[in-house]
Specification:
253 residues; alpha/beta; five-stranded mixed sheet; 6 helices
Length: 253
C-alpha cells in the first residue's frame, strides 16, 4: 500500500432508537480487517450526513429523498403514548387517539412521526427535543407520542407507555446515496438482509478449499494390495501355496 492509499473502512450512521449491534457483530466476524464505525445522528440530520459523505450508509427513519438515496425498508414501529405510571391511561392495554383528545400532548421539535395536526390539546410550548418532552411528562404536565423504541430509549421508572392503535407510525430503513453503492455497502446490505457469508455480495470472502482429487497413479499406490488366495484350485494344475516344489518328470525307458 502506498502512502496515498486509504485503508478500507465502513461508517454507519444511525438515529436514536435504532440498535445496530447485531449487524456490527456479524460484520466484525466476516470482515475483521475492515474497521466498522458507528455514527449516531439526530433523525432530522441523517440525510445530510449521508449526502455530505460523513457516513457510507445509515439506518434512519423514512421518508428519504428517493431521487438521491436508495432505501431498503426494514420495519415499522408501533407508536406509544408515554404517561406517568399513575395516569388513567394505564388502566387499558391500548388506547386510541380519541382517548387522548382531552390530554395535553407534547409535540417536540425533533418529532419523527410527522403529524400534520398533532393529537390532543396543544402544549404551552414545543419542547426542543424528545428528551426534554420526557422530562415534562415526568413532571405531570402532559403526554408524549413516540415510536416504541424511543419510549424504551428514554425509559424512566416513574413513566410507562401504552400502544396507540390508530396513530401514525414510523418506518425504519437502511439507506445510502444511490451514486455511492460501493462493495462495502453491498456487503452490509447482505448482512442486514440475512445473507450467509458465502452468498453475501461485496469483498471476496475466503472460501473453504475443496479437497483435491488424487491422480489415478497416486491413488493406485495408496490403495492396499489385494491379498492372494492360498487355497488350491481343483481345476488348476498350478494351484497351491506359493513356493511349493514340483516333482521331476520321469524319464521314459
Amino acid at each position: 500500500m502506498t502512502g496515498s492509499e486509504v485503508p478500507p473502512s465502513f461508517r454507519l450512521a444511525y438515529v436514536p432508537g435504532v440498535t445496530p449491534a447485531k449487524w456490527v457483530r456479524i460484520w466484525n466476524e466476516r470482515l475483521p480487517d475492515v474497521p466498522f464505525t458507528l455514527v449516531q445522528v439526530p433523525a432530522a440530520e441523517a440525510s445530510d450526513v449521508l449526502r455530505g459523505g460523513e457516513a457510507d450508509a445509515g439506518i434512519l427513519r423514512l421518508p428519504v429523498d428517493r431521487t438521491v438515496f436508495s432505501a431498503i425498508p426494514l420495519y415499522t414501529e408501533t407508536t406509544v403514548v408515554v404517561v406517568p405510571k399513575d395516569h388513567l391511561v394505564t388502566a387499558a392495554e391500548e388506547v386510541s387517539l380519541e382517548d387522548l383528545s382531552d390530554e395535553v400532548v407534547f409535540h417536540p421539535l425533533d418529532d419523527v412521526l410527522g403529524w400534520e395536526q398533532p393529537p390532543g390539546e396543544p402544549a404551552f410550548q414545543r419542547p426542543a427535543t424528545t428528551a426534554d418532552a420526557i422530562e415534562l411528562v415526568a413532571a405531570g404536565v402532559g403526554l408524549l407520542l413516540v415510536p416504541q423504541s424511543l419510549a424504551r430509549l428514554y425509559h424512566r421508572r416513574d413513566l410507562t407507555y401504552r400502544p396507540v392503535v390508530d396513530a401514525l407510525r414510523s418506518s425504519v430503513a437502511l439507506s445510502w446515496p444511490e451514486d455511492a453503492t460501493t462493495d462495502l455497502v453491498e456487503h452490509f446490505i447482505g448482512i442486514v438482509r440475512g445473507r450467509t457469508a458465502n452468498s453475501t455480495r461485496g469483498p471476496a470472502m475466503p472460501a473453504a478449499q475443496p479437497q483435491r482429487k488424487q491422480p489415478d497413479a497416486v491413488a493406485a499406490r495408496q490403495k492396499p494390495a489385494a491379498r492372494k488366495s492360498t487355497s488350491r484350485n481343483p481345476g488348476s494344475g498350478s494351484g497351491g501355496p506359493k513356493g511349493a516344489r514340483r516333482g521331476k518328470p520321469r524319464r521314459r525307458s
